[in-house]
Amino acid sequence: MAVETTRWGILYCPKTGVSNQRKRWEHLRALLDERHVSYDMVQSEHSDSVSRLVTMLIQNGYKTIIIVGGDSALNDAVNCLMQEEKRVRDEIVLGVIPNGVMNDFARFFDFDEDQDEQTIDWLVRHRVRKIDLGCIRYTNKEQVKCHRYFLNCVNIGMTADIMNLRRQTRRLFGSRTLSFVSSLVVMLFHRMEYKMRLRINTDVIDRNVMTVCIGNGPGYGQTPSAVPYNGMLDVSVVYTPQMVQLVEGLWLLITGRFLNHRSVHPFRTREVVVEQAKRALVGIDGRLMKTPVGEYKIEVEQEVINFLIPG
Question: 120 near 89, Cβ under 8 Å?
Fold first, then answer.
């Protein structure tokens, strides 16, 4: 039996480390019922089940799929959508109710975890915009050619390490602030530079680099001018600063002025080729991935996903 085209398929991804996970859903359900939204909800047991459940919603004919989760859950959802034929993908609209450790992409569109009423009102209005996706194409250790799409950013180097530490410490401490501070402390004992060779437009960067952020979105403050609808990627290449400059850079990152730092070199491009990045970890939308083998490429695909935005 076909699902009504106006019926939402909602995937609820409980936040890791939160004891009363059901309370959050009960609050959202009350708001949805007040607005007479027609929906079916499925709940993920763990992060590995998100892809399976999104695929199930697609196969069952839901045309509006709402992810109650964070950047990683959204990442899984768009990668499921991109496995479908274009004609199927064009009929599906993706939305988000932020409920993750980091909700950077949702915040770009002003979706706030503490403003559920506003978020649902915006989703009900069903204002749709085509958005871009970034894509990393690489070879894995088994010499298989792979690719992975991203909404927000790819981080290479120290920031990928910090994002992984922050996720782990958030589970431990529960507090976003404590996890950030503890991650910075641990960072002082980590490798601070990586030998990289990058091709960006006509520029070749061949030197030691601390971190690189390639943003389709705000990139956790590192690509603050990036927007997911101009067919371009913003790139911030950070050379290794002195300790005083590092502290200054962290302050500029927190205050939204990251590009003003003297060690940050910004670019705008459609493609980045990473010819070499020895031992540099890679993170995609806040989740650590297995380090690619050899050269890999990061590019943008324009207007490929229907996304619900405020309206």
Answer: no
Write the pLDDT tens digit of every residue in 40-96.
999 998 767 899 999 999 999 999 999 999 999 999 999 999 999 999 999 999 999
The answer for residues whose C-beta is within 8 angstroms of residue 161's C-beta and 6 or more apart is 187, 190, 191, 281
Q: Tell me the whole-structure pTM to 2 decimals.
A: 0.87
Tokens of 76: 């899984």
Instruction: Please choose, from the candidates 17, 298, 2, 9, the residue with its C-alpha nearest in 3D space to the C-alpha of residue 172.
Output: 17
With tokens 């298989």, the residue in question is 144
Rounded CA-CA distance 58/11 in Å is 12
Residue 300 Cα to chain centre, angstroms: 14
Instruction: State CA 210 to chain mean position distance.
Output: 21
For the chain, the distance separating the N- and C-terminal CA atoms, rounded to the nearest angstrom, is 32
